[in-house]
């Protein structure tokens, strides 16, 4: 059984897609909370490193898993849904727009984050507890 928002299903592959939505929501939430905490406590290096690790995890997901997820929706699910009802067509069109927005953000973050975190990962003197992925 998968639940996302007010939707619930145990029918695969819809349940799998919903679980992927839950996973990315969790990664975004974790990254946001880690960054917020690091900003609230600017002198604590370990919090900044944890925030960067969360951001790296999120970007890694966006670069691989989210691309696959979007392809499943746009190549299989959405074409199957189109034409059933005008309301469904509107929802599908909105979801495609959201995918386009995510893709633009993903491209942007995949350029900025490595540049931002690269200074720390290329350094020979890493802070204690820092591990490279």
Describe this structure in words.
The protein is mostly helical. It has helices at 14-40, 45-63, 65-81, 86-121, and strands at 2-4, 7-9. The chain contains 4 helices and 2 strands.
Spell out the blueprint of helices and strands.
Layout lengths: L1 E3 L2 E3 L4 H27 L4 H19 L1 H17 L4 H36 L12
Antiparallel strand pairs: 1-2
Keywords for this entry:
mainly alpha; two-stranded antiparallel sheet; disordered C terminus
What structural category characterises the helix and strand content? mainly alpha
Q: Can you give the mean pLDDT? A: 78
The oligomeric status of these chains comes to: single chain
The percent of residues in helical segments reads over 70%
Q: Sheet bearing the most strands, described?
A: 2 strands, antiparallel
Low-confidence blocks of residues: 118-133
For the secondary structure, the number of strands is 2
Beta content comes to under 5%
State the distance separating the first and last CA atoms.
32 Å
If you compute it from the alpha carbons, what radius of gyration comes out, rounded to the nearest whole angstrom? 18 Å
One letter per element, helices H and strands E, the order comes to EEHHHH
Tell me the number of helical segments per DSSP (H or I, 4 or more residues long).
4
Q: Tell me, briefly, the overall form.
A: elongated
Strand order of the biggest β-sheet:
1-2
Outline:
The chain is mostly helical and about 130 residues long. It is built from 4 helices and 2 strands.
